[in-house]
Design brief:
Length: 441
Amino acid sequence: MGERTTIENALIVTCDEKWKTIEDGFIAFDGDRISEMGKGSPKQKGETRIDGSGCVVIPGLITAHTHLYGILLRGAQLNIEPPTDFAQVLQRVWWPVDEALSIDDAYASALSASADMLRNGSTLYADTYSGPNSIEGSLAAIARGTREVGMKGIVAFEMTERHNEEEARRGFDEGVSFIESVKTDPLISGMMSIHASFTVGDEIVEKTVKKARELGVPKTIHTSEGLVDLYHNLEEFGERTVERLYRLGLLGPDTCLAHCVHVNEREMDLISQTDTRVAHNPMSNMLNAVGVSPVPRMLEKGITVGLGNDGWIYDPFENMRCALTVHRLASGNPSQIGPEAVLRMATLGGARCYGLEKEVGSLEIGKRADVVVLDGMNVPTPLNKVSVLGHLLNTFSGADVRDVFVNGKQVVANRRLALVSDQKVAEVSRNSAESLWSRLN
Ligand SMILES: [Zn+2]
């Protein structure tokens, strides 16, 4: 059973299938799972009791696609010619960074990006790490940084053949041995990751599909994020990106396609028919000026969509707000997408992207106690059962995250990390960034 924690007097938004909301409610967890939830107060008080008066309790938000090492670039002045398209963003920014990364950077960025996500209300991320000169041991270093702050992570090494086939093979081996090493880990799991269709040949994709099935783990790939991916596939194979991935057997419910910006009706039909999942990264798409993913159309087709940050802004509330607004702007329709659809992406949608919907993504009895307490003190209008969904998209931000629990353990208390000092995390991360920046310039 484990220690009992109760959060009382709170407005609870379960984010379950029926959007059940409980006013003046309580939630209790014994050990790592939610054991009781309801109106009023629990019969048996917890050893740890949290007063949730004036607060909103939601499930831990899920970051369905990220690159933890992106945090080391905050404020960096790179000595490069400004990129004018997405291919140049990769060539001039990300690929040189990838190459400069060390195992220490993998650790430091996992520590600080996990801390940043936790303090902003995200309790689980799906990361893919890319570092051709720091392959072996990188995933264990990421896992170590993540565990130190108490976050959950799905960790993967991003295979690419942009230099040679050997680096993909080493990335494959790193992924496989890591997956086996974390089989019973309560916080960390592994998956297989391919960078993108345009940086790999057929063979490694087919090998990955087979291995992921054998290991029973999800897989992920950047899919038509920029036009470079689409054009490469059209030129090389006479197929659009999703058509090629379909031919190679990559699509299916165990696969999460990141981005899907340049996909047409036929590709969305293939995604829908195969029940493949999609991770939407609206802020990153805007930052890199790659275009707008047709997410409202995907939702109409019944495609499961999660919400990611792609290694840029780690506050899930900012990403939700952007998902709400960008599709309205792009369509000229102020009702194009609503708060429920966006909050769904950040909760159960993200869980479904990786087959974890029975464990996380909503507050339900028996599920893992990944719980976020938002301080409603500064909400300027009535905060109740009816208004709360609107507030979650229009009012709250990561700065309102007061307490966070992961597997029933408190990891953020009163806006500070509970397991390690915020100051130490910042220090480790700054040292790592300083050294990385000097190697880059
Ligand atoms: Zn990405």
